[in-house]
From TrEMBL:
Source organism of this protein record: Undibacterium pigrum
Positions of transmembrane segments: none
Protein name (database record): Arc/MetJ-type ribon-helix-helix transcriptional regulator
SUPFAM superfamilies the record matches: Ribbon-helix-helix (SSF47598)
InterPro entries listed in its UniProt record: Arc_rbn_hlx_hlx, RHH_8, Ribbon_hlx_hlx
Annotated signal peptide: none
One BP term from GO: regulation of DNA-templated transcription
Amino acid sequence: MSVTDIRAKASDTEKITINLGLIDLGQVDLLVQEGFYSNRTDLIRTAIRNQLLTHAEVIRQTVARKSLVLGLQHYTRADLEAVRDAGQRLQIQVLGLASIAADVSPELAMTTIESISVLGAFQASNAVKAALAGRIL
């Protein structure tokens, strides 16, 4: 995966579903109708970003305390082979996007990855995800 591919993935979005009460939903629709937001999604994204800004310091402290990688972390086959050859194992902790290259075999992943904790999105082949299923926290 090239740097360009990784940057493209960073702009990808993940779909979530929320349930709102009818009154809240009506208020959202009213703000959209009055032109404050272009659509429901725009309002929800703005509200989430505002909450994340409100709690930015707590997020920063937690990332530091838990030794999380903030942003993108991509593991190539060469990366994992180097870990294996050094006799080490990874404890992957990412806030953002963690990805494992498509050419990484399930066996190499099992040999080199002790655990995976991702707050965000984890991308790997279905075979690698299945092999690591018991190690994903």
